[in-house]
C-alpha cells in the first residue's frame, strides 16, 4: 500500500533536521578542535621562547659564585632608626618598599625598645639601605641592646640599673634565639647566630645561646624524621629541572647573601 504523500514529506523533513543537526555538531566539533590546536601551538611557542632565552648576566654571575671563593662583604648587622610612632612590621616593610628598598634585603624588622626600629640586613646590602634612607634625611642611630634604658616599662621602675641591664641582656638573647629558630630557610638562621657568636661588641651572642639554638634545631630535626618514618610513604613525583617550574626570577640571582653559609 502506497504511503500518503503528506506522511512521506514529514518523514523527509524529520531526516533533514537530523542531518542538519549532525552537520552542525560536526562543524562545532571541528571548530573546537581548531581552537584547541591553536591554543596548544601558542603554548608551545611560549614554552619554546622561555626555554631558549639565554641566562642574563646576573644569573650567570650567581651561578659562577657557587664555585668561587666569596670576595664581597660577609656577615650581618643591625641598623637602628628612631621610630616616633607606634607601628608594626608590616607597616615598616611597606615604608621600605615605597622608599625603594627590596624587602628581600631586610631579614628581620624588630622593635628592641620604645621609639626604636631595628633592621637586620646582610653586610652586602647595609650601605645601600643606609644610602636609600639618607636621601630622605633619615640617619641611623647607635643602640646598645644591654643598656638599662631599654627597660622603659613603668612597672620595672623600682629595679636598679644593673638589674635593668641584666633584663635587657636576657631580652636581647631570647629575641635572637627566637628569631634565628624561626628563620626560613633554616640555614640562614644558623648563619646569623654563628656570625653574632663570633663578632665582638654589643650584639655578640654567648655560648649558651648558640648551644641552645643547635640543641633545639637537633630536637626539631629528630621529631621531623620520626614523624616522616611513621607516616605512610607518599609516591615520589619527579620535579622538572627548569627555572620556570621553580618560580625563579631575575632578582633571585642577584646575591647569595640570604643563603650564605657560616664562615
UniProtKB/TrEMBL annotation:
Residues 37-49 have a biased composition (Basic residues). Residues 1-60, 220-263 are annotated as: Disordered. It comes from the Eukaryota. Residues 247-263 have a biased composition (Acidic residues). Coiled coil: none annotated. Transmembrane segments: none annotated. Residues 22-36 have a biased composition (Low complexity). Residues 1-11, 220-242 have a biased composition (Polar residues). This is Uncharacterized protein. It comes from Parasitella parasitica. The gene is PARPA_00204.1 scaffold 481.
